[in-house]
Design a protein that fits this description.
heterodimer, A: mainly beta, two-stranded antiparallel sheet, 2 helices, 9% helix, B: mainly alpha
């Protein structure tokens, strides 16, 4: 019979054994939990942080002329292959090279009916080729700096560009600030709507972009961007014309333009496999144009690590520039345009993208994506696009 | 002066964002679903479409104009 009395500070062999078993069970349970936790996390697609990759894309864009400028045929088809190569050079440096080509087929100046076969304007048949090379240096755990140059050429257009970018994250990684400055120096061969070629002219575009990304909460991030661009030089589109008061004349737009664009976006992880994003954009310039857009997107990991679906919607509304000339105009102002894209309109864009982050039927290091979008414009210039993308992480 | 309701609501939504989220609560932010503009080529293509078809000045963080004859 056991004696009652004060408890001994030294546990009895029985209680010590029980305690050991309990501790062991607890440790085993924790170990099992720890084992299971990473598995559960691994089953979700992680952010792609690869620095060595090749990204390929092929874009198809088609616009049908269901309205717009009644004096122009505005059907247009664009085929655009793109390739981006990124390579880590040591621990600190990353180099990138982007190549892009556009094969454009458009009847915007109705050229083939007006001029002799064999001639063309920049709009009736065009090929664009561009190259962009950049280098980025991880200055510290918090700061990255980078710079790059670009060159692009078209039938009637050449452009040299350069940019510099500074990115800083706070020690807590809750805030990231980006400053980007860029400049483009373009040369245009002027081929006017009537086929005349009065020579060349140039265009300069200088931009400053500021961005701030902020972790709003454990499942919510937001970003704010402000981009200001100052353009000067020949800002008209050479082959555009204006038809009014019984005559057709060359488009003439001001030779300087200051543009401001603001964007705010917030993304929230609603449930484990589904994030929603909302965005607002506002734009104004000193040509009298203002624009506003709203974006909504859902990012749904429909099959963990295998398939991400991204349905999206974008509403856009813009006012026309001050120099826009309506069809019924009885006189021709000094500054004038009838470019449909500088007119007042609203548009609705519906998109759906399917991303296979680890296309296991090919290889773990490959990614595949397919996207479709369709835009309905209030002026009848509807369009649709198809994108096929592929990533190889080497 | 009365504070407009929309401003008060925006303030309430933004308030939690003023505090730092500790690193151990950010696991979900490392997910693919939570990355803005992860695809450079997609952003580049969208930017080109937007700047050529609208006045609105391109995608967030991208400048309008320059480098392409199609820009508005």
């Amino acid at each position: 019979m056991r004696q009652l009395g004060p408890k001994s500070p030294v546990p009895s062999p029985t209680s010590a054994g029980t305690l050991a078993i309990l501790l062991l069970m607890a440790a085993t349970a924790q170990a099992q939990e720890e084992k299971q936790m990473p598995k559960a996390v691994e089953r979700r697609a992680e952010a792609d942080t690869a620095r060595d990759f090749v990204r390929l894309a092929f874009n198809f864009y088609d616009q049908s002329d269901g309205g717009g400028n009644e004096h122009l045929k505005e059907d247009m088809t664009v085929l655009e292959p793109q390739i981006l190569v990124s390579k880590a050079i040591g621990e600190k440096w990353t180099g990138t090279v982007k190549l892009q080509a556009d094969i454009i087929s458009a009847a915007s100046v109705d050229k083939r009916y007006r001029f002799a076969p064999g001639t063309q304007s920049g709009a009736s048949g065009d090929k664009f080729f561009g190259i962009d090379a950049g280098a980025f240096y991880a200055w510290s755990d918090q700061t990255t700096i980078g710079a790059g140059v670009s060159f692009s050429t078209e039938y009637d257009y050449r452009s040299l560009g350069a940019y510099a970018k500074w990115t800083y994250s706070t020690a807590s990684k809750n805030d990231t600030f980006v400053v980007k400055a860029s400049g483009y120096f373009d040369t245009l061969d002027l081929i006017l709507f009537d086929g005349s070629e009065p020579g060349t002219d140039d265009r300069r575009s200088l931009s400053l972009g500021l961005g701030w990304s902020h972790v709003i909460g454990p499942r919510t991030v937001g970003t704010v961007n402000w981009d200001v661009t100052s353009q000067s030089g020949f800002l008209s589109t050479p082959y555009n014309s204006v038809v009014a008061a019984g005559t057709e004349v060359q488009e003439v737009l001001p030779d300087s333009r200051l543009r401001n664009a603001f964007h705010v976006r917030v993304r929230h992880l609603l449930v484990d496999d589904l994030a929603i994003e909302g965005g607002l954009g506002a734009y104004f310039d000193d040509w009298g144009a203002t624009a506003f857009n709203v974006e909504l997107a859902v990012h749904w990991e429909a099959i963990p690590e295998v398939l991400i679906l991204r349905p999206s919607y974008r509403f856009h509304a813009q006012t026309e520039v001050d120099s826009f000339v309506s069809d019924g105009a009885t006189s021709i102002p000094e500054e004038r345009t009838q470019d449909s894209d500088l007119a007042s309109f609203t548009s609705h864009t519906f998109g759906l993208k399917a991303i296979f982050p680890h296309a296991r039927f090919l290889s773990d290091d490959m990614e595949l994506e397919i996207g479709l979008d369709f835009t309905i414009r209030s002026d009848g210039l509807d369009s649709f696009g198809v994108t096929v993308g592929y990533v190889w992480r080497y | 002066m009365r504070l407009p309701r929309w401003l008060a609501l925006a303030g309430l939504i933004a308030l939690p964002g003023c505090t730092d989220t500790p690193y151990y609560e950010k696991k979900d932010l490392g997910r693919r679903l939570m990355q803005f503009d992860a695809n450079d080529l997609e952003v580049s293509y969208q930017n080109k479409v937007t700047t050529s078809r609208e006045v609105s000045g391109g995608r967030p963080g991208h400048s309008a104009g320059g480098g392409c004859g199609c820009g508005n």
